[in-house]
Amino acid sequence: MEKRSEQRFSGAVTIFRGLRLPERATPVGYAALIDAYDLQVPWPRKLRAAAERHRVYSEGGWELLTPRHRPPATLESHLTFALKHEGLDLAVLKRLFQTVGPEPIAEWVRSKPTGSYARRVWFLYEWLLGSRLPLNDATRGNYVPAVDPNLQWAGEGKVSKRHRVRNNLPGTPSFCPLVFHTDTLREMVDRDLALRARKVLDEVPQHILSRTAAFLLLKDSRSSYAIEGEKPPQDRIQRWGRAIGEAGRHPIDIEELLRLQSLVIGDARFVKLGLRTEGGFIGTREHPGLRPLPEHISARPEDLPDLVSGMIAFDQEAASALDPVVAAAVLAFGFIYAHPFEDGNGRIHRYLIHHMLAERGFNPPGVVFPVSAVMLEEIDRYRHVLEDYSRRLLPVVDWQPTEGGNVEVLNDTADFYRFFDATPHAEFLYRCVHRTIERDLPEEARFLRRYDSFCRRAEQIVDMPDTTLDLLFRFLQQNEGQLSKRARTREFAQLTDDEAAAVERIYRDLFTAS
Q: Is the Cβ–Cβ distance between 116 and 141 less than 8 Å?
């Protein structure tokens, strides 16, 4: 095995497959394997190489290491380096196993039957490819985890006696994105935002809380449509808001996804409901003509049943072992990348966030965190996160345009939607949740308290119906605490100058005081 592999690996380079390195260095780990075996896969978010200088630094998507980090130029050594320092990239590993075949892996295990990395690679080979290597079951060696829990989020772990490995992969071979532990995620988890949300709401009177919850629910529904550039009628916004309010009550299965799509679309006369039967992409079309200019290409229609079944299994099993926000990011962004439906994917993608948080009891009962509203405010960052993977995915998707202006994918891409690094997505979602808890919840509750106080104090000056009080408030709100000339001469012409001045003072005391 080693002699055959040796010649594949390059030495020091300054250009790696069109990418410029910060300095001359030798690719190691996944970078070396991708190059040596010409693997057509989305590159990891960070590539690694060993330089000549004795310092470690990151620049331009590379981590430059010292000469002592450079492993021998063999398949075994670079695989060991990758598992030890870079965690699992299941898409790369599966393509690598398909390329090298069973014998090099079996030979490694035979030569080191108790080696922890050999047994992990053996397990991963059989788990990913669904085929057994010509090896007897392991009888020695301590049990080792498939996923290093110090590097990446892992599941609970089921023992594989054959390999003496604990299968703690947070998913199935049909769907198993992974998330790295980062300082940002550790900090967010340590804040215990679920507890923080409950403390914030414990200070809110029940009659204020119910109105706060209703407002936030409607805000999220309206924002979710706005992200898609749609302005639907109020009844559709309210209908989708009611669906979001019920998130977490029903398990995710294909029937539930189809129900959600029907609710999102409303009028389905011009949309084919159900899983796509044709290709799909996000982007534009050039003119004249209909040639697609994709920014993201969705999963092939023939791959969708298995991908969706993998997401369903993740929701019903593996997700329970992960942090709720991390699990929500994995499920929701996995769904949007696959894009299983002709239309409605974006709103269902954001619904799945609410589903996971509610199902796991992360948000207080009856309260929806308006993450869609934060995403709308942070739309550029949201798109950047979505494009983080699409930019690396698109170059390895072989496609051709169809006569109808769609795309037809020509190569096998299913694994690129099953396995991806969801770390930036989890970080972004945690920031959104944090912002709703620290800003939206208390601000809306505080607003309603002040609004109620305004109404009580205004009624002591002049008696008027609740609807008229609300109209008075909105006029003041729109004009920075002053009634406009129009309002004074029309809707509130019957107010005296003293009464108008008094309600203006009340508004300013409550809403403009520092």
A: yes
